[in-house]
């Protein structure tokens, strides 16, 4: 029945109200129960002029856009932090034809888990609640004024190649990912991270959905690449910037 999964089918980390309309079936060869997830959602609302402020379920997505490919720096401070993307509409004005690095060398979208972290967050009137410990979050399929923890995008988490302390979680609070290495200044972005227990995850990272640490990425030319979370920082960063002028390519 919709909204109900027999006990043998429910892993411990799925016993939460964000998982609905699942169907349980038994593999005829192994005899094991499998979960077929139909819809995942979080609660969203709190605006008095929309549905009287009631919280309603909203759909999630496992595909997020590259804020660097489709964004612009906001004029007032010329930064593009996660807050600029969420609140200043620092996205949506670049065209694929402006990718001077080439569409075959620019990632426009990647796979990212619908839910990051071990808590169920709620979007309530411009803010998210329910996060504990590490910053939990979700990728809303469609949204209005909402904190970045529920927006669903990447391209704002920086990684300084001169240090190692940010290798696990990056520097997501920065508005500029430019760092100087051996006299050359360029942008460096956090690559897909290694898988971690859900209570150790942070929304600003991309955690692989597939086994082997693989993240599927859509490039500007329409091709799809399977990228390992072992990809080096320099190559990944070059693929995030649409017009960075880096010599590295997707090949």
The arrangement of helices and strands along the chain is EEEEHHEEEEEEEEEH
Kindly name the structural category.
Answer: mainly beta
Query: Can you tell me the residue ranges where pLDDT is under 50 for at least 5 consecutive residues?
Result: 1-28, 30-39
- The fraction of residues in strands falls at 15-25%
> How far apart are the first and last residues' alpha carbons, in Å?
47 Å
Residues in helix, %: under 10%
Biggest β-sheet description:
5 strands, mixed
Q: Shape, please?
A: globular
- Mean pLDDT, to the nearest integer, reads 79
Beta strand count: 13
The number of helical segments is: 3
Radius of gyration: 19 Å
Briefly say what this structure is.
The protein contains three helices and 13 strands; from the N terminus they run E-E-E-E-H-H-E-E-E-E-E-E-E-E-E-H. With 251 residues, it is mostly beta strands.
Could you outline the blueprint of secondary structure elements for this entry?
Elements: E1 19-26, E2 33-45, E3 56-59, E4 63-65, H1 67-70, H2 82-87, E5 107-111, E6 115-116, E7 122-124, E8 127-129, E9 137-138, E10 178-181, E11 184-187, E12 214-219, E13 224-228, H3 233-240
Parallel strand pairs: 2-7
Antiparallel strand pairs: 1-2, 2-3, 4-5, 5-12, 6-9, 7-8, 10-11, 12-13
Description:
The protein is mainly beta and 251 residues long. It contains 3 helices and 13 strands, in the order E-E-E-E-H-H-E-E-E-E-E-E-E-E-E-H. The chain has helices spanning 67-70, 82-87, 233-240, and strands at 19-26, 33-45, 56-59, 63-65, 107-111, 115-116, 122-124, 127-129, 137-138, 178-181, 184-187, 214-219, 224-228. The strands form 4 sheets. Strands 1, 2, 3, 7 and 8 form a 5-stranded mixed beta sheet that branches.
